[in-house]
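Before the break, one more example. Copy the sequence into your notebook; we will annotate it together after we see the structure.
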Amino acid sequence: MKMNIDYIKFLEQKASALDPLDKIRKNAIEKVTDCSEQFLSGLDTSPVFNPSETEGSGLFDSPITEEGKELDDVLQLFDEHILQPGLNPTSPRHFGYIPGSGLFYSALGDYLAAVSNRYAGIYAASPGAVRCEHLLIKWIAKVLGYPDTMAGDLTSGGSIATLSAIVSARDAIGIKAKHYDSSVIYMTRHTHHCVEKAIRIAGLNECIIRFVDIDEKLRMKADALHDCITSDKQKGLHPWLLIATAGTTNTGSVDPLKDLSIIAKVHKLWFHVDGAYGAAFALCDSGKKVLDGIDLSDSLVMDPHKGLFLPFGTGAVLIRDGIKLHGPHRYEADYMQDESALAHLEMISPAELSPELTRHFRGLRLWLPLQLCGVAPFRAALEEKILLAQYFYHEISKIPGIETGPFPDLSIVIFRYLPLKGDPDTFNESLVHVIQEDGRVFLSSTIVNDAFVLRMAVLSFRSHLNEIDQVIEIIKEKIKFLEKG
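Here is what the structure looks like once it is written out:
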């Protein structure tokens, strides 16, 4: 076969745009850095929510074409149609949902991970990357009181982490398809929806799900759980999985973890704790007290992109008995035989602890800020968020007509306003909408005990006392505006 060398060289020249020269790279880095600096320096004054009419649809006016565009033009598209419309989670005045504030040093870690493109899935491919992630998992485990027998994985978020935990529990307990319709899972109505989603994806949707009663502080009742399990056993059913929450997304409530762990042990249930939002608070003294018993779980989930302030796309799963994470996720493939030969006995590859094979080197986004800042600023920020939530709770309670929910376990406060006339749910729905449309601060809402309530979630490392006071003043302002009709 005669090869067309000239055509191969033509293709090489055409493809060279994918590997720019150093001068072009430096220019691109400078322009992207200027764009990011402009964004970060404007956080204090820019709106946290921008209800755009176009909602980024202008992107469709610049479709993907055969020839590329100038970087300046592309950055303009990014700023106008991606950066500007919608919610800005990096804002210090973002108090809706569970804020994810995005550390600057994490962005640098992501840049280094992407440029070096180290493959963190297999030990043989990048021993340093895998060791880095093992080191981070061990650090998280130590913070949460897990033993050396544990294993864990850095995931894309709480949903995949939860799926790994549910699958590990399923296989460890030995739940087979023939058992599904008599096997019982326990949780509350405030359990995050990703848990039921993971149950469904894991093929367990035919299991019986019991929603255990909650107390006045919106926490699972331990005695109600015990009664429920006892009743199910008397019916010939098979209780096998207990899901507790260390900081519900709805209200921030922490279930009585220690009491629940005892019940799980007595009845031989797998005890899983969803600490996606709340587990990181174990770093500070007051949070550690609230989370008492989290170390007694069989598995738990934590999202560093929440309580450790990392960019979105960072979760973690820990399994107390590490072999039970390895079992369901290990693999065999002929083309991976070299990896087996180069494997390290103490460094199980993340690909054997996860549904993922190809994966981003997530470790650097956590490793770099921890190395540069140390743990102390993280610990201080988390303690501050708890105190800010308590401050908000006390101050908002002083507003005539405001009804608050339970005193915050962590950093979420729920409340609503009881208007002088009219339906409270309708009024509070209008209240959250006018606050959001104003754009200066962002709060979200939820339904608790069939009532429409507002949520104040304090978790951004950029949020401080000044921002809390601003929220309170805006709430007062909007209540006054709506009451005037």
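DSSP finds 17 helices and 13 strands in the chain. The two ends are 83 Å apart (CA to CA). Try to locate both features in your own notes.
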